[in-house]
Amino acid sequence: MMSSRHPLAKCPRVLPAQLEGETLIESRSSSVAPTRERMGAYYRKLGLGKNPVVYTDSFSNVVMMVETGIGVAIVPSNLRNRLFAGLCFAELEGPWQQMEFVALCMPDNPNPCAREFFAFLSGYQKEEEPGEGAAAGAAPPAKEN
Questions:
Q1: How many CB atoms lie within 10 A of CB 92?
Q2: pLDDT tens column, 42-66
Q3: Where residue 68 falls among pLDDT bands split at 50, 70, 90?
Q4: Which among 22, 57, 107, 122 counts the fewest CB atoms within 10 Å?
Q5: How far apart are CA 12 and CA 80, in angstroms?
Q6: Contact 96, 65 (CB under 8 A)
Q7: CA distance 89 to 76
Q8: Would the pTM of this model clear 0.90, i.e. be above it?
Protein backbone atom coordinates (compact mmCIF):
# COMPACT_ATOMS: atom_id res chain seq x y z
CA MET A 1 0.00 0.00 0.00
CA MET A 2 1.46 3.34 -1.03
CA SER A 3 0.45 6.92 -1.65
CA SER A 4 -1.04 7.59 -5.08
CA ARG A 5 1.83 10.11 -5.43
CA HIS A 6 4.52 7.45 -4.82
CA PRO A 7 6.89 6.83 -7.79
CA LEU A 8 5.74 3.17 -7.90
CA ALA A 9 2.02 4.00 -7.67
CA LYS A 10 1.27 3.02 -11.26
CA CYS A 11 3.06 -0.34 -11.00
CA PRO A 12 0.76 -3.35 -10.61
CA ARG A 13 3.68 -5.42 -9.24
CA VAL A 14 6.66 -4.33 -7.15
CA LEU A 15 9.89 -6.19 -6.48
CA PRO A 16 11.20 -6.05 -2.91
CA ALA A 17 14.41 -4.44 -4.21
CA GLN A 18 12.30 -1.49 -5.41
CA LEU A 19 11.33 -0.86 -1.77
CA GLU A 20 14.92 -0.80 -0.47
CA GLY A 21 15.35 2.18 1.84
CA GLU A 22 11.60 2.93 2.01
CA THR A 23 10.12 3.54 5.44
CA LEU A 24 7.83 0.64 6.31
CA ILE A 25 4.78 1.53 8.38
CA GLU A 26 2.88 -0.98 10.47
CA SER A 27 0.31 -1.09 13.21
CA ARG A 28 1.10 -2.66 16.56
CA SER A 29 -2.33 -2.30 18.15
CA SER A 30 -4.27 -5.28 16.83
CA SER A 31 -4.27 -8.55 18.71
CA VAL A 32 -4.28 -10.33 15.34
CA ALA A 33 -1.52 -8.20 13.79
CA PRO A 34 1.73 -10.08 13.18
CA THR A 35 4.33 -9.56 15.87
CA ARG A 36 7.30 -7.26 15.33
CA GLU A 37 9.57 -10.31 15.30
CA ARG A 38 7.48 -12.07 12.65
CA MET A 39 7.31 -9.00 10.42
CA GLY A 40 11.02 -8.33 10.97
CA ALA A 41 11.78 -11.87 9.82
CA TYR A 42 9.56 -11.33 6.78
CA TYR A 43 11.30 -8.05 5.93
CA ARG A 44 14.66 -9.80 6.16
CA LYS A 45 13.37 -12.61 3.91
CA LEU A 46 12.42 -9.95 1.35
CA GLY A 47 15.81 -8.23 1.69
CA LEU A 48 14.25 -5.24 3.47
CA GLY A 49 15.70 -5.93 6.92
CA LYS A 50 17.64 -2.64 6.96
CA ASN A 51 14.64 -0.48 6.02
CA PRO A 52 13.42 1.92 8.69
CA VAL A 53 10.18 0.79 10.33
CA VAL A 54 7.66 3.13 11.94
CA TYR A 55 5.10 1.67 14.34
CA THR A 56 1.77 3.33 14.94
CA ASP A 57 -1.10 2.58 17.28
CA SER A 58 -3.87 1.87 14.78
CA PHE A 59 -4.46 0.80 11.22
CA SER A 60 -6.19 4.12 10.50
CA ASN A 61 -2.89 5.82 11.39
CA VAL A 62 -1.08 3.48 8.99
CA VAL A 63 -3.49 4.55 6.22
CA MET A 64 -3.01 8.23 7.06
CA MET A 65 0.79 7.98 7.19
CA VAL A 66 0.96 6.08 3.91
CA GLU A 67 -1.43 8.51 2.21
CA THR A 68 0.70 11.47 3.27
CA GLY A 69 3.80 9.80 1.81
CA ILE A 70 5.67 9.02 5.03
CA GLY A 71 6.23 5.44 3.88
CA VAL A 72 4.66 2.28 2.51
CA ALA A 73 2.89 -0.60 4.23
CA ILE A 74 2.92 -4.30 3.45
CA VAL A 75 -0.70 -5.33 3.99
CA PRO A 76 -2.89 -8.35 3.19
CA SER A 77 -3.92 -8.57 -0.46
CA ASN A 78 -7.63 -8.42 0.41
CA LEU A 79 -7.23 -4.72 1.21
CA ARG A 80 -6.59 -4.06 -2.47
CA ASN A 81 -10.33 -4.01 -3.14
CA ARG A 82 -11.08 -1.49 -0.40
CA LEU A 83 -11.65 2.12 -1.30
CA PHE A 84 -9.01 4.28 0.33
CA ALA A 85 -8.73 7.76 -1.19
CA GLY A 86 -5.17 8.70 -2.09
CA LEU A 87 -3.77 5.17 -1.92
CA CYS A 88 -2.57 2.63 -4.46
CA PHE A 89 -1.90 -1.06 -4.07
CA ALA A 90 0.67 -3.19 -5.86
CA GLU A 91 1.35 -6.89 -5.58
CA LEU A 92 4.66 -7.54 -3.85
CA GLU A 93 6.73 -10.14 -5.67
CA GLY A 94 8.58 -12.68 -3.59
CA PRO A 95 7.74 -14.99 -0.73
CA TRP A 96 4.36 -14.58 0.92
CA GLN A 97 3.84 -14.03 4.61
CA GLN A 98 1.50 -16.67 5.95
CA MET A 99 -0.91 -15.60 8.66
CA GLU A 100 -3.00 -17.85 10.84
CA PHE A 101 -6.23 -16.89 12.55
CA VAL A 102 -8.26 -18.60 15.23
CA ALA A 103 -12.03 -18.15 15.29
CA LEU A 104 -13.93 -19.22 18.41
CA CYS A 105 -17.59 -19.24 19.31
CA MET A 106 -19.64 -20.72 22.13
CA PRO A 107 -21.35 -23.87 20.80
CA ASP A 108 -24.75 -22.72 22.04
CA ASN A 109 -24.53 -19.25 20.43
CA PRO A 110 -27.99 -18.59 18.93
CA ASN A 111 -26.77 -15.81 16.63
CA PRO A 112 -27.43 -16.87 13.01
CA CYS A 113 -24.50 -14.71 11.86
CA ALA A 114 -22.13 -16.91 13.86
CA ARG A 115 -23.48 -20.03 12.11
CA GLU A 116 -23.12 -18.36 8.70
CA PHE A 117 -19.61 -17.18 9.50
CA PHE A 118 -18.43 -20.64 10.57
CA ALA A 119 -20.14 -22.19 7.55
CA PHE A 120 -18.16 -19.78 5.37
CA LEU A 121 -14.92 -20.62 7.17
CA SER A 122 -15.50 -24.34 6.79
CA GLY A 123 -15.61 -23.82 3.01
CA TYR A 124 -12.31 -21.95 3.03
CA GLN A 125 -9.35 -24.04 2.00
CA LYS A 126 -5.77 -23.20 2.80
CA GLU A 127 -4.14 -22.02 -0.39
CA GLU A 128 -0.59 -22.63 -1.49
CA GLU A 129 2.05 -20.02 -2.23
CA PRO A 130 2.32 -18.87 -5.83
CA GLY A 131 4.27 -21.35 -7.91
CA GLU A 132 2.99 -24.22 -5.77
CA GLY A 133 -0.59 -24.31 -6.98
CA ALA A 134 -3.47 -21.89 -6.51
CA ALA A 135 -3.16 -18.18 -5.72
CA ALA A 136 -2.48 -17.54 -2.05
CA GLY A 137 -5.12 -15.90 0.07
CA ALA A 138 -8.04 -16.65 -2.22
CA ALA A 139 -11.33 -17.21 -0.45
CA PRO A 140 -14.29 -19.10 -1.87
CA PRO A 141 -16.47 -17.06 -4.20
CA ALA A 142 -18.99 -14.86 -2.42
CA LYS A 143 -22.67 -15.70 -2.84
CA GLU A 144 -24.61 -13.11 -4.73
CA ASN A 145 -28.04 -12.05 -3.53
A1: 20
A2: 899 999 999 999 999 888 899 999 9
A3: very high
A4: 107
A5: 11
A6: no
A7: 10
A8: no
SS3 87: strand
Is 78 within 8 Å of 136 (Cβ atoms)?
no
CB atoms within 10 A of CB 72: 23
**Average pLDDT, whole number, for the chain?**
78
Contact status, residue 95 vs residue 136, Cβ threshold 8 Å = no
**Confidence bin at 71 (pLDDT 50/70/90):** very high
3-class secondary-structure state, position 14: strand
Tell me which DSSP letter residue 57 carries. Answer: S
